[in-house]
Every structure is written in C-alpha cells, then in structure tokens.
Specification:
Layout (H helix, E strand, L loop, with lengths): L2 H17 L1 H7 L7 H24 L3 H6 L8 E11 L3 E13 L7 E5 L17 E5 L4 E2 L3 E12 L2 E13 L7 E11 L3 E15 L2 E12 L10 E12 L6 E12 L5 E14 L5 E10 L9 E13 L16
C-alpha cells in the first residue's frame, strides 16, 4: 500500500480511537454520573438510530441490502432498472436483481445472496455483473452496542467463484453530544484474491424534525483484485442531507457531496460529485422511482465539470417495511 494511503488509513483509525468512550473521557472533563442525563442521552441516541434506519430503508442503502436489519432477518428481493446520461460517457441502461433469501429452518444460519456488490463509484455508473453466493453464518456474538458476525461461503471475485470467510464488526460509539458515531469493519479472505478490508465511520445527526445529516467515511483495500479501486486502495467521503417533504409522507430528497480518492497512478482525487436525489413511492407501496441530477468532476477528463442524470425504478418483493417510513422522521425531535 502506498505511503500516502497508509497515512490516510492511520488518520481514519486514529479518528475512530478518538471517538471511543475511554478516549473521550481522557481528553475531556468527566461528566457527572447523572441518571437523568444518561436517560436523555439514550433517548436521543434511540431516535437518531431509528431515523437512520428509516432513511436507509426508504433509500435502499447498500448497508441495508448487505446487512439486513439485525432484529428483522427476513427474505427481501429488489428488482431495479437504471437509465443514465453523462456528458462524457453518453447514455447507459442497466438493471438486475439484488436480495437475500433467509432459510428459517436453518435458524438464520444459511443464506442465499445474489446481486452486485453495490460499491459506489461515480455518478452514472451502472451495475455490470450479478453475483450469487451461499453463506453459512455461525452463531452470533453480540452485545448491546457491538455486533460481531462470522461468515463462510462462496462468492464471485476476479471473474470466478471463490470460497471465502468474513469477520464483520459494527459498534455504536458513545457520544454525549447530538452526533451519533458508529463504526463498521469487514475483513474478508478469499481463496484466490486473498485479503479484502472494508471500514466505515458514520456520524449521524438530526437537525430538525424534517432534516437528517450523515457523514460517511469509507476505506477499502484489496490485496489481489486489480479491478477494484483502480489498483487496490480507495478512500471515499460522503456528506448527505436528507429532507422529508412537508406535504407528503411518501417522498423525500437527499442532497449529496461525494469525494472519491484512488491510489493509481498516485493517491489523488478520482472524482467529486454534487447531486440531488428525489425519491418517491408510487401508488403501489412496493414500487419506487428516483431521479438524480448531478454535476461531477472526473480526473479522467481533467476534472472538467460534466452533467449527469440518472433515473431509477425499484420494486420490492418479500419483506417490505418502507410504506410509512418517512413518517418516522419527526421522531428526531418528537
């Protein structure tokens, strides 16, 4: 891994450690042991978590598709179509299926997953491949703020299906303020493409009953998968402001600023994207459509601004809890 990439990785890990409860207590005056204050903090954290979960479900975030709700492990399949236009790349069309089948008689330990990785790159990029894998999940090791899972299975990498193992850890960090930090780490080992690491730091905050802000920092590293991240290592930073529209509970807006860094030929800004997403549920509670106008600045074209437009249609089959999800947003301050 290049020296600059290691520097950025170390900085992100340092930020994670700074946010840990023990570190915060060491750098700031200790707060009094006040049961009322603790109760208020727990209630605030609960509301932020519920709002984040509601938004993730309504916008079908990759985290929800990959992880599923911990307390609601149910079969869910998403079919989607995408139509895109980009000043540099022209018109593109794509689509596919993504989902997870839970086999209840296996006590939630055997899953069939299909669909692409859904790793974000630049605006206008469409899924080029579909993946199918069978995953065996051993018994969970969990605590109230920690979630640890171990998976073994078969998954597609570098054009071939490979046996793999994965250790996944998620933790909600302690915070006395209005920001709710959380970290997620995934460590994979594939029989041929070897080690992969995915790390994510989220900072969530309710700004008002109708506004929710999220900062997400993602690090990915691939030992032997040159098709990913332009050579192995990438750092992505997302800032998103979600808005519930006052006149409707079935539509929402998201305003995004996204920055993608790659290490080939050297660590540099690969693309920057400014976009807005308008998402609405149709008169059918399982059919959604989304339109995304954007301006981005790809390094491939010397960072000259380019307009892009994406139209997306999503249908949910199986477990669906998104019908009144936007109604939950007032719980931020309710």
């Amino acid at each position: 891994m290049p020296r600059k990439a290691l520097t950025h990785l170390a900085a992100t890990l340092a930020l994670t450690l700074i946010l840990e409860p023990g570190t915060v207590a060491a750098s700031e005056p200790a707060l009094p042991d006040n049961s009322t204050l603790d109760s208020l903090h727990q209630e605030w954290s609960r509301r932020v978590l519920e709002t984040a979960s509601a938004i993730d479900n309504f916008f079908f975030s990759a985290r929800v598709d990959e992880e599923g709700r911990e307390e609601e492990q149910k079969t869910r399949i998403r079919a989607y179509l995408k139509f895109g236009y980009d000043d540099n790349e022209g018109i593109s069309l794509g689509g596919g299926l993504k989902g997870k089948l839970y086999l209840p008689r296996t006590q939630n330990r055997l899953h069939i997953m299909f669909g692409g990785d859904d790793e974000k790159t630049a605006i206008g990029t469409l899924d080029q491949s579909q993946d199918i894998s069978i995953r065996v999940r051993p018994k969970l090791l969990e605590a109230p703020r920690h979630h640890l899972r171990v998976d073994i299975g078969l998954r597609k990498r570098i054009g071939k299906y490979q046996p793999y193992g994965r250790v996944r850890h998620r933790q909600q960090l302690d915070s006395r303020g209005p920001w709710l930090p959380s970290v997620a780490n995934k460590l994979y080992y594939f029989s041929r493409s070897k080690i992969e690491y995915h790390g994510q730091l989220n900072l969530d905050r309710c700004l008002s009953p109708n506004l929710f802000f999220r900062s997400a920092s993602l690090i990915r590293w691939y030992e032997n998968n040159p098709d990913k991240c332009s050579g192995g290592f990438c750092l992505d930073q997302y800032f998103t402001l979600y808005e519930r529209l006052l006149h409707s509970s079935h539509e929402a807006l998201a305003y995004d600023a996204e920055f993608f860094f790659r290490n080939k030929p050297e660590f540099e800004l690969y693309d920057a994207v400014i976009k807005a997403r308008y998402r609405r549920m149709s008169h059918l509670d399982w059919l959604f459509w989304e339109i995304t106008p954007a301006v981005h600045f790809p390094a491939k074209y010397k960072h000259d601004p380019a307009f892009a437009l994406m139209f997306r249609l999503d249908g949910i089959f199986g477990y669906n809890e998104t019908t009144d999800v936007i109604k939950k947003l007032p719980s931020c301050q309710g």
